[in-house]
Amino acid sequence: MEALVERLEKAVVRLETVAGKLQFGPGGVANGDIIISSHMTNGGESQSMEAFDLLLSGSVSEYVKTSTAIGGDVAKHAEMVNDALQIQRSFLKMSMTHREPAKMKESLTGNNMRRGITDRVYSSGGTVALRTELADLLRPLSDHIHEVQSFREKNRGSDLFNHLSAVSESIPALGWVAVCQKPGPYVKEMNDAAMFYTNRVLKDYKDTDGRHIEWVRSYLSIWTELQSYIKEHHTTGLVWSKTGPVAPSSQFSAPSAGPLPPPPPPPPVFMENNPAAQHSALFAQLNQGQDITKGLKHVCDEQKTHKNASLRCPGERIPRESPARSQTRRHSPVLELEGKKWRVEHQDQSHDLLIEDTELRQVVYVFSCNRSTLQIRGKVNSIIVDNCKKLGLVFDSAVGIVEIINSTDVQLQVMGKVPTISINKTEGCHVYLSRDSLDCEIVSAKSSEMNILVPEGEDDYREFPVPEQFKTVWDGSGLLTEPTKIAG
After folding, report:
1. Three-class DSSP category at 249
2. How far is CA 336 from the centre of its chain?
3. CA-to-CA distance for 284 and 242, rounded, in angstroms?
4. What is the three-class DSSP state of 225?
5. For residues 378 and 399, what is the distance between their CA atoms, to the nearest angstrom?
6. How far is the CA of 97 from the CAs of 41, 50, 62, 84, 263, in angstroms?
7. Start-end of H helices in 56-174
8. Which phi and psi angles does 29 have, rounded to 5°?
9. Which residue(s) pair with 412 in the sheet?
10. Which has the higher per-residue pLDDT, 94 or 486?
11. Mean pLDDT for the stretch of residues 23-32
């Protein structure tokens, strides 16, 4: 295997050398060497940029236009998305004139898979990462993605929250430039995540406001067309220049900031002019297995400065966070009416929480409450429970939806009526229905350990589990999906 890898590396080095020497010469074959003409190379680059610009002037422009028509938070969000796409355009243009930075392989586990494209670059399989100077190049794009997602978190009470959520859940698709092998399926995965919320938008506005329907169409088409663009120009990953200078490790700026700075000089490594030797040495180190740690020096407890004050420099101490400062970092509990929204946040071990004097137009937002109990008297518009653990919620009636999101071990009891209960990304949810709410629709996704309890007799309930496993078969004309039961 090592011999085969070395032969392939030598072949690649040979091709790159020939292409570099004859970049501006005519295409053809000479002395058995393959010559790639500058006309073919530049033509491919221009076609790639033209295709991406067509995406920006088409679906992206239409998305910004429809968002501006809706206005408010949606219009602000669209400006952020457009800025992020412009940053990606600058990055793509830079990659066409620069070679990819040096990279180093390292193994990953499932727990550290999604830490941001500035920290790790992922393969589509999720088992290998590339940690490189590419992180600095991607930092502006990563910052814009984070800005888009933070905007959603800061506006959870917005009337257009489903719009913001659709964008926030799918904007990581711009990280495809850091995905090895096949980035197209990664973009599709992000597009599917957006559809959970866009379907809600379609449901809410299908008979009232056509602008929102057009907004959904234009936004989803961005990712659909991006998949087509990747399939045509970057099928197996971002294509870098083979003959240009190495990409600069410093961050590149927004499109209006001017040309890229010149690349830094290469490090003074003794085998810098021999790429094959570099790769061989790297593979030799990686193939050591358990022997790779033999060169490390063992440090006993007596040599550790954090365990021996005498080894530290005079006046040096290990910083410790004071209890007072740690306490100030904790969020203060909130239970207040803000406009038409009741905010119940950061409550811990509070079992006497009560909301009364409610109105039909008010919504209740319960966020990050643990081991607490909340009672809501009267009829409200809707209730959202987000990121809560061991929460008990008792309410009279809701004219809209009651949502349980990103929570664990939640108990919900309806005293009056509620038309719809949505359970999403939740582990452990018990719903106690009243006799008046037996016609309630219960929608669940990505959740487990869900049980519905219906009244039986005077003061007794009968428990029914919500299916978590489904079977799908082809019936000749379409897919037929039905829940399955596991015996035992």
Report:
1. coil
2. 32
3. 25
4. helix
5. 11
6. 11, 16, 30, 21, 11
7. 61-70, 72-95, 134-154, 161-170
8. -130, 130
9. 393, 431
10. 94
11. 39
| 305 phi, psi to nearest 5 deg | -70, -30
CA-wise closest residue to 1 among 211, 198, 287: 287
HSE, CB side, 13 Å, CA atoms: give it for residue 142.
16
> What is the pTM (predicted TM-score) of this model?
0.44
pLDDT at 56: 92
Half-sphere exposure at residue 210, Cβ-oriented, CA atoms within 13 angstroms: 0
Answer whether residue 344 shows pLDDT above 90: yes
User: Alpha-carbon distance 414 to 434, whole Å?
Assistant: 6
| Range 58-63 average pLDDT | 92
CA pair distance 252, 141, nearest whole angstrom: 10
> Which two structure tokens, joined as six digits, stand for 343?
């905010």
Q: What is the pLDDT of residues 242-264, one digit of tens each?
A: 887 887 755 444 444 444 444 44
AA letter at 317: R
Q: What is the pLDDT of residues 363-381, one digit of tens each?
A: 999 999 999 999 999 999 9
Say if residue 131's pLDDT is above 50.
Answer: no
Question: 428: closest CA among 462, 454, 466?
Answer: 466
How far apart, in Å, are the Cα atoms of 205 and each of 162, 208, 212, 242, 395? 12, 5, 6, 50, 27
Cα Rg of the chain (Å, integer): 29
The C-alpha atoms of residue 434 and residue 438 are separated, in whole angstroms, by 7
Cβ-contact 80, 60 below 8 angstroms: no
294 or 257: which leads in pLDDT: 294
d(CA 341, CA 101): 50
**What single string gives the DSSP state of each residue in 57-72?**
IIIIHHHHHHHHHH-H
pLDDT at 333: 93
Q: What are phi and psi of 45, to 5 degrees?
A: -65, -45
Say what the pLDDT of residue 414 is. Answer: 95
Residues 6+ away with beta carbon under 8 Å from 203: none
Contact 187, 176 (CB under 8 A): yes
